[in-house]
Amino acid sequence: MFVTGIRIALQAMKRMCAINKYSDSWKVRVLNMKCQRKPNNYELLRAKEVCALLKISSTTLWRWRRLGVIPEPIPLGPRLIYWPKSVIEQFIDV
């Protein structure tokens, strides 16, 4: 099931990059960044995994998301969101 979710996300990324390359939407900006880089191993992280990488609590993660400190996640459904691992790694490097 998880592999299917990743496959769907990658297909959506390809479509969005081809359709709307210059949009101001944060989703398209993140996806355009991914399209330009063409990563070999595209990995998506759940909130718990992001918290572990950043060494923060889940409350802090949601507070940072609300304040715009951390990049917005990619929604794959009404209750299913992921952050691209490379985006979180860039956030850590900054």
Account of the protein in words:
It is a single chain. This protein is mainly alpha-helical and 94 residues long. The chain has one domain (2-93). Helix content is 61%, strand content 12%. The chain has five helices and three strands. The chain has helices at 2-19, 26-37, 47-54, 58-67, 85-93, and strands at 44-45, 74-77, 80-84. The protein has a three-stranded antiparallel beta sheet. A hairpin with a 2-residue loop joins β2 and β3 (80-84). α1 (2-19) packs across α2 (26-37). The longest helix has 18 residues, at 2-19. It is globular.
Cross-sheet strand order for the largest sheet:
1-3-2
Which percent band covers the strand fraction?
A: 5-15%
Instruction: List low-confidence stretches.
Output: 19-24
Q: What percent of residues adopt helix (DSSP H or I)?
A: 55-70%
Structural class call reads mainly alpha
Listing every helix as H and every strand as E from the N terminus to the C terminus, the arrangement reads: HHEHHEEH
- Straight-line distance between termini: 33 Å
Question: Layout of helices and strands, plus pairs?
Answer:
Blueprint (H helix, E strand, L loop, with lengths): L1 H18 L6 H12 L6 E2 L1 H8 L3 H10 L6 E4 L2 E5 H9 L1
Antiparallel strand pairs: 1-3, 2-3
Helix pairs in contact: 1-2
What would a concise description of this structure say?
This protein is mainly alpha-helical and 94 residues long. It has helices spanning 2-19, 26-37, 47-54, 58-67, 85-93, and strands at residues 44-45, 74-77, 80-84.
